[in-house]
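lol forgot to send this yesterday, sorry. struct tokens for the thing we talked abt
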């Protein structure tokens, strides 16, 4: 056991573990990685790529019985028109917000410098967790205010609550203001926490994944809330409850803020509704 922990510590703290990966990225894709457009391309493409498997599950529906046993609200499946509506909103946001913001970045921000040194694995993991925790706090406050102040809710957040049974494509079925805020924090937080670029990109992709998972409508055995013990992490079943019962579970990732503020609701609520 002692040997194991020592090995683990050596492995995590090892500065050179990620170095070969970082070197090969730097040498082969230097110009792409330095571009201020890279983080945008990375997050947008991972969004569509990671939505795809869940979208296929929704489209296959009953034909995939094994998958459907994990559906959180089995009686409520997104219809073709709902899916098309969300695809439309997402496309609209990307054409009128994401694209102009990317062009502005590309035009005004100089290419970034790629450091020679890779982060250690421990730095990378700590950075990703730090970013998730910081975002979780910011979005918790933002989300709470947008539910408590009626004007804010109606003007900005109501669109995201069109659906009380979420599905992957509903993740970015957001108003422009919400998308801009979320994008702003996701870009700013790694700078505040002085993260390495590799850590920043890892966080961005993971953040996209967990946001989709929150909305996917399925609670698979490998969902984050099942992989992370003690109910630390909310995951799909908790956020599903937020869409059914909007005065609970405001935090996007972890469950501590909702527990502290008394807004935490378990999935037993929706089981009672069925
Ligand atoms: Zn949601
Ligand atoms: Zn909400």
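and heres what i got for the seq, position by position
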């Amino acid at each position: 056991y002692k040997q194991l922990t020592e090995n683990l510590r050596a492995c995590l703290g090892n500065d050179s573990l990620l170095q070969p990966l970082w070197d090969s990225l730097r040498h082969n894709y230097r110009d792409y990685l330095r571009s201020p457009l890279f983080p945008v391309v990375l997050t947008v493409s991972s969004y569509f790529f990671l939505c795809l498997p869940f979208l296929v599950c929704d489209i296959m529906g009953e034909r995939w019985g094994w998958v459907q046993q994990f559906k959180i609200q089995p009686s409520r499946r997104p219809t073709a028109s709902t899916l098309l509506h969300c695809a439309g909103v997402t496309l609209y946001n990307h054409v009128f917000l994401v694209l102009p913001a990317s062009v502005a970045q590309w035009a005004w921000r100089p290419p970034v410098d790629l450091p020679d040194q890779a982060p250690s694995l421990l730095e990378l993991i700590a950075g990703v967790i730090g970013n998730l925790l910081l975002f979780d706090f910011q979005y918790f406050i933002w989300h709470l205010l947008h539910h408590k102040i009626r004007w804010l809710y109606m003007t900005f957040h109501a669109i995201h609550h069109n659906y009380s049974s979420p599905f992957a494509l509903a993740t970015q079925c957001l108003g422009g203001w919400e998308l801009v805020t979320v994008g702003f924090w996701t870009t700013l937080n790694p700078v505040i926490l002085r993260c390495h670029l590799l850590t920043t990109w890892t966080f961005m992709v993971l953040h996209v994944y967990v946001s989709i998972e929150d909305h996917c409508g399925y609670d698979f055995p490998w969902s984050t809330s099942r992989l992370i013990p003690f109910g630390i992490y909310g995951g799909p079943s908790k956020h599903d409850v937020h869409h059914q019962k909007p005065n609970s579970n405001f935090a996007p990732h972890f469950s501590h803020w909702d527990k502290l503020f008394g807004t935490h609701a378990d999935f037993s609520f929706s089981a009672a509704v069925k």
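The radius of gyration is 20 Å. anyway ping me if u want another try
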